Each structure stands twice: as C-alpha cells, then as structure tokens.
C-alpha cells in the first residue's frame, strides 16, 4: 500500500491511499474492490505531492510535471498542452518498441526490431523523451528533470552506454516538439515577435475596465492586487488539436444573453446560490478552484489518474497509454472551450449581476466572514479570493466543465467502469477565502463515479459565482464529445479497435 499527500491551496491536504489490487492490464472484473479509500484531513503546511518509490516512470514524470506547473504561471489551457506534449513524447518513444502502436509524429518509421523491444530499452527511451520535453516546456525547473535522470543512473556519461534507446527517445520527442512549435499556440513567440504564448490575433474586448458598452459581452475586471485582467490566450482556439476540431456546425449553441427571460432566470439562479451557500458548498468551490499556483483543472484530473493507476496496479505500458489519451483529451477540451470563449465573448456573472441588480437590495454572500446578508446588488461578489475574483477570460463555456467531463469520460473508458470511489476530507477552518472560519467542522466530499466528480467540478463554478448554468451544461456536453473523438483516435494509434 502506498500513500501520497497533496497540498491544496496551502490550507488542507488530500491523502489518497491506493491499494494495488488489480495487476492485470485489463479492467477489474465486476464486483472487484475498486474504491479509493477516504482521504484524511491534515494540518496546513503538509508537503506537496511526491512520487512513491514504487511508482513507474510515467507516474514519476507526471508528478514532476505537476510540481513544475504549481510553481509556474501557466493557465489551464497551457498546462493541458504541456502535459499532452510530455505524454505524447513518452507514447511516441514507447511506440518504437511496440509491434502495433504508431507514433503520432513519425508514424511507423523508426520501429525497433523485436530483439530490442525490452522493458529496459522502453524505460530508457521513455525517460529520455520525457527529459527533453520537460526541459523545453518547463525551462525554469530543469533541475527537477536533471535530478530525475540522475536517480535513474542516466547522467550524461551513463547515457552514452545506452545510445540506441536514448537516441530513440530523443528523436521521438524532437519530432513531437517540431510539430508543436508551429501549432498555433505561439509557444516561441514567433507568430508576432512577442512573448511566448502571446496573442497574435489582435483581440480587443468590447468593454473596458471602466465602461460597459455592451452588457452581453465580457468585461475585464480588476482584482485587488492584480490590476485589470487581459483575456488569457484568446488565440487558443487556433491551436492544432489532437483529434477534435470544433467547427461552426459542432460548436455549442449560443448562450442566453441579456435582456432575455432565460438569461434573467440564470442570473437569479446564481444570486440564489450565493444567498444559500453552506459550508459544504464553500468547500466544493475551494476544492475545485484550481486557480493560480495550483495544478489547474487538467493537473487535478492527472492526480485522479495517478490514483487510478495505483488503485488498479497499472504497469508502465498501461500508464503510457492512459496518460497519453487523458492529456490529449484535456488538450482538445481546452482548445474547444477557448474557441467558444472567444467566439461568444460572453459576460461573466460579476458584471451581469452587478448591472442587473444595481440599486436593489438583494440577499447574497456578503464577503469573508459576513455570511448571507442584504446588500446593494452593485456590490455583489462571487465566492472567490479577493486577489483572483473572477477568471481573466469570457464566460461561455465553462473550462472546468469541459476539462472535467472529457477527463471523466476517458477514465471511464480506460478502466472499463465509471466507478471511482474517491473522497477528500477538508479540515475545519482551513478556507483560503474565509480563513479561520470555514468550514466550522470537517467536511468530506466523495464521488462514487468519475461522472459524479465531473458534475461537481462544474457545479462548483456556479456555487462560486463564476458561471451560469448553460456554460456548465454545454461545457459538460462538449467535454464528452471531445473525449469520444480523442479516444477513437488514440485507439487507432495504439493498434486497437475503437470501443
């Protein structure tokens, strides 16, 4: 039995104990124990997630990447791309030692002869590929990768003794990186001669920080110490997807907009949720928040996948495949969600509710430690941190919903079941929004299924005043559609029939 510990917003800790009960590469049989035992509450300041001694190479590189993500300033769509590249490099390196799998960047070229298809060679090639990808994607944290390679005895001098698998891994990663350098993300800043990942599409918001010209559209909002928000990567819909390409015919329907009756009803629902916040609702908001300096929503679902791997006793090859398909689904989910955000450019609740209820006395959350009270509608606040009061991009569709639904669907298909059995217990008074106050007693969140977790992730953004209902519902639908297409493409590359 192994235990991992993970810091969540520096205030509470999730501990997942994973029993490796299923050692076969197929899903657990019906009736087999598949639950992840309940997490325990812990004190603030506990150590961040660390890989265990028994973790395979894929899990250890994934853990390292999430550590780098937490220390970076990458937003969720950029994180999804980085994790997809990392795990695609590992998949392509492993494919060279497989009799049917086809590398994404080089096809079947470079397949090694049967005599070389050993576990040792695969491990070396996978780690070499991961090292090259990590060094490019997280250059400021390269020391993590150097330490990881040294622990494997793959120092520069030692690597010379394993020339062939090292070269295979490095060549596989180099081909993936070449393809991704011009994928529309502007990673190198060469689309516009600007900063890495900067916008080259000349997006300009309809509304400004001080002037609301059109109440249907997104308005930048200033947080207490961050200044006005610029749209995070408005060009992201142009990034080359792994498999799912959104079009005008497949894009979700337009959201309800003011002054329609349907939009008014969704505004009223957000206000009612604000007034009715319980400690459990607040814990749900903060658990799924995944804002700056966290692993972000894509990383959150990678942590769940790590738990699945340990629970079901995955071997190296099965984790190569699982993290490859999971992270490419998260990549395509982010691209599709950001395409919608740019296309519809729709208003956030913080702008809409303050405009709609200005001058009216309404019941809502009154701010940290103030509970539900009567306030002027123009002062309405989402249940969020003061220094990150609302995300810096338009509302529709919900990124959390799209990422989570896509990931949940992939994990269902990987395991052959929707059974999850995850839970977390949050310590009393551990809130980062209402520190020392919320929750009054320990609160346990649990998810019998992956779908339950995805639904709660989407709902958390409505409790928190970040999204309207339509953005959640349509984001969930979009995420499931993404997962279906990505799964089919990944199965083809693995030489398996799509199911």
Say what the CATH topology is: Vanadium-containing Chloroperoxidase, domain 2
* Strand order in space, largest sheet: 1-2
What is the helix tally?
Answer: 14
Helix proportion: 40-55%
How many DSSP-defined strands?
A: 8
Instruction: Detail the poorly predicted runs.
Output: 1-35, 37-50
> Main sheet, how many strands, which sense, barrel?
2 strands, antiparallel
Overall 3D shape: globular
User: Would you identify the CATH architecture?
Assistant: Orthogonal Bundle
Strands, helices and their partners?
Elements: E1 2-8, E2 12-18, H1 57-70, H2 76-95, H3 119-137, H4 142-151, H5 156-159, H6 163-181, E3 222-223, E4 227-228, H7 261-275, H8 279-287, H9 296-312, H10 316-344, H11 349-356, E5 361-365, E6 372-376, H12 399-415, E7 419-426, E8 443-449, H13 450-463, H14 469-493
Antiparallel strand pairs: 1-2, 3-4, 5-6, 7-8
Helix pairs in contact: 1-2, 1-3, 1-9, 2-3, 2-6, 2-9, 2-10, 3-4, 3-6, 8-13, 9-10, 9-12, 10-12, 10-14, 12-13, 12-14, 13-14
């Amino acid at each position: 039995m192994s235990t991992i510990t993970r810091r969540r917003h520096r205030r509470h800790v999730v501990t997942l104990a994973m029993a490796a009960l299923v050692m076969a590469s197929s899903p657990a049989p019906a009736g087999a124990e598949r639950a992840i035992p309940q997490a325990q509450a812990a004190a603030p300041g506990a150590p961040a997630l660390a890989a265990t001694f028994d973790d395979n190479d894929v899990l250890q590189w994934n853990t390292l990447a999430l550590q780098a993500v937490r220390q970076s300033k990458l937003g969720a769509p950029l994180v999804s791309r980085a994790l997809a590249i990392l795990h695609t490099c590992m998949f392509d390196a492993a494919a060279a030692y497989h009799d049917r799998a086809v590398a994404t960047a080089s096809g079947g070229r470079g397949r090694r002869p049967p005599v070389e298809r050993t576990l040792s060679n695969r491990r070396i090639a996978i780690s070499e590929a991961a090292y090259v990808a990590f060094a490019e994607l997280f250059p400021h944290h390269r020391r993590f990768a150097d330490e990881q390679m040294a622990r494997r005895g793959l120092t520069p001098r030692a690597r010379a003794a394993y020339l062939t698998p090292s070269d295979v891994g490095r060549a596989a990663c180099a081909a993936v990186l070449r393809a991704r350098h011009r994928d529309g993300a502007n990673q190198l800043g060469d689309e516009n001669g600007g900063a890495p990942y900067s916008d080259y599409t000349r997006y300009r918001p309809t509304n400004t920080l001080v002037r609301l010209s059109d109440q249907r559209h997104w308005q930048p909002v200033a947080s207490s110490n961050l200044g006005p928000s610029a749209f995070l990567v408005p060009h992201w819909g142009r990034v080359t997807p792994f498999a799912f390409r959104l079009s005008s015919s497949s894009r979700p329907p337009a959201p309800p907009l003011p002054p329609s009756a349907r939009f008014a009803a969704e505004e009223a629902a957000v206000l009612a949720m604000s007034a009715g916040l319980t400690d459990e609702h607040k814990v749900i908001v903060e658990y799924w928040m995944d804002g700056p300096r966290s692993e972000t929503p894509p990383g959150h679902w990678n942590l769940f996948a790590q738990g699945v791997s340990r629970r079901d006793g995955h071997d190296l090859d099965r984790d190569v495949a699982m993290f490859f398909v999971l992270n490419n689904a998260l990549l395509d989910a982010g691209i599709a969600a950001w395409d919608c955000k740019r296309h519809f450019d729709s208003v956030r609740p913080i702008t809409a509710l303050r405009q709609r209820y200005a001058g009216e006395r309404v019941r809502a959350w009154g701010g940290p430690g103030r509970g539900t009270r009567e306030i002027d509608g123009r002062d309405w606040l989402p249940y969020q941190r003061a220094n990150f009061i609302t995300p810096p991009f338009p509302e529709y569709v919900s990124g959390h919903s799209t990422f989570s639904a896509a990931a949940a669907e992939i994990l269902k298909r990987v395991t052959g079941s929707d059974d999850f059995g995850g839970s977390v217990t949050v310590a009393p008074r551990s809130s980062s929004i209402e520190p020392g106050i919320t929750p009054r007693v320990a609160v346990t969140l649990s998810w019998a299924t992956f779908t339950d977790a995805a639904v709660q992730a989407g709902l958390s953004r409505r409790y928190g005043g970040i999204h309207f209902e339509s953005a959640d519902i349509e984001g969930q639908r979009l995420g499931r559609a993404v997962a279906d297409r990505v799964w089919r493409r990944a199965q083809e590359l693995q030489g398996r029939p799509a199911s």
